[in-house]
Amino acid sequence: MSDDRISRQRSPDVEKMAEAIDAFLDAAGFDTKGHPHLGRSGQRVADAWSGDLLEGYGTTPSEALGTPFTETSGDLVLVKDIEFFSSCPHHLMPYQGKAHIAYVPDGLAVGFSGIVRLLDCIAHRMTLQEWLSRDVVATLMSELRPKGAACILQATPMCVLAGGVRRPCRIDATSFDGVFREDAELRRDVILASVGES
Ligand SMILES: [Zn+2]
């Protein structure tokens, strides 16, 4: 994974995270102590971030992908419409959408669940959508040495919805390597197969 990505320096201190969220709510003008709804929000937010939104830091992309097996076919593999969520490092807000991931094997393949685990491992970190698509492709290229790999993401970032243009919009991020970069027809085919029908 590229060096300019957001890396985690320490294991999360969930108690400290909960206290910080309580302090944040206090600073925002809310009394949380004993409140029927906000009283445990600090803990809930800390649990959600440490257990779900940032859980990807607990494993490496290579481990998540799993051990490849021998594959003699060179047919295109496309896993499409994989629901995912991630979080934006600029606003600490989540985004969610669909991922379509493809590769053309050159002797090695992995199960579909490995592809989904790889996506989750990288998405459940603080990352930008364009980094996410690039890191998925880079991992597939280095671990499977395929003829090519592609990742197409379509997501709605909460920070754009709430704070930017204030309306829902879908932002696509795409990354292509190997034959998908070289062969415009194949690239078009995989884009159409991914997003052209639903
Ligand atoms: Zn953002």
Structure description:
This protein has 198 residues and is of the alpha+beta class. The chain folds into two domains: 14-53, no CATH class; 64-195, GTP cyclohydrolase I, C-terminal domain/NADPH-dependent 7-cyano-7-deazaguanine reductase, N-terminal domain (GTP Cyclohydrolase I, domain 2). Helix content is 41%, strand content 23%. It has helices at 14-27, 41-53, 61-65, 112-123, 129-144, 158-163, 179-182, 184-195; strands spanning 69-70, 77-88, 93-104, 108-109, 148-157, 171-178. The protein has a four-stranded antiparallel beta sheet with strand order 2-3-5-6. The protein has a two-stranded antiparallel sheet with strand order 1-4. Strand 2 and strand 3 form a beta hairpin. The longest helix has 16 residues, at 129-144. It is elongated and about 60 Å long. The two termini are 32 Å apart. The model has no long low-confidence stretch (mean pLDDT 93). The structure holds zinc ion (ZN). The site of zinc ion has 6 residues, from loops.
Per-chain topology:
Blueprint: H1 14-27, H2 41-53, H3 61-65, E1 69-70, E2 77-88, E3 93-104, E4 108-109, H4 112-123, H5 129-144, E5 148-157, H6 158-163, E6 171-178, H7 179-182, H8 184-195
Antiparallel strand pairs: 1-4, 2-3, 3-5, 5-6
Helix pairs in contact: 1-2, 4-5
The structure holds zinc ion (ZN).
Zinc ion is lined by residues 88, 90-91, 93, 157, 159.
